[in-house]
Specification:
The chain has about 160 residues and is mainly beta. Helix content is about 15%, strand content about 45%.
Length: about 160
């Protein structure tokens, strides 16, 4: 009986020590701050597909003037099921679209996403996204920091 009492006392003390070290840990996910120092996006526009249900494309200029290199990891688009970086590449003697791997940006660099080259493929576009409106885009870099900004929505026949 005496051993049980000391075991329970030791367990209680260990629990208190671990709680004190935890600094009030929470089950809530950690949200990275919005904004990546030195990363800017300009000329962002989403061009809807001519056929409802087909993917849209986003074009923009992404520039970086930060202190250290950053790896651009993924992209999210409000009002879409998914979005991914795409580029044109040659496979088996033919040019085709392919998903891009995460890419590194160095200080002073600009990556241009334009028709026929790098672009953002957007699938499952909500019917609420209409020409003349905007949608929120978020570029996420490795480590979780992110840059959010609006993208103008254009119809299929409008200037890309």
């Amino acid at each position: 009986m005496r051993k049980s009492f000391f075991a329970e006392l030791a367990l209680a003390a260990a629990t208190l020590v671990l709680r004190a070290c935890g600094g009030g840990a929470s089950d809530e996910p950690v949200v990275a701050p919005d904004g990546v120092p030195g990363l800017t996006a300009t000329n962002a526009r989403m061009v809807l597909a001519p056929v409802d249900g087909n993917p849209a494309a986003i074009y923009l200029d992404l520039s970086y003037n930060g202190d250290r290199n950053v790896a651009v990891n993924r992209v999210d688009v409000e009002g879409a099921e998914s979005a991914m970086f795409h580029e044109m590449g040659e496979w088996n003697g033919k040019m085709q679209m392919q998903e891009m791997l995460p890419f590194v940006m160095k200080s002073g660099e600009t990556v241009t996403f334009e028709p026929g080259a790098k672009h953002i493929m957007v699938t499952g576009v909500s019917p609420e996204l209409q020409p003349g409106g905007t949608t929120e885009m978020t570029i996420i870099i490795a480590g979780g920091d992110k840059l959010s900004f609006p993208a103008e929505i254009r119809g299929a026949g409008e200037d890309r």
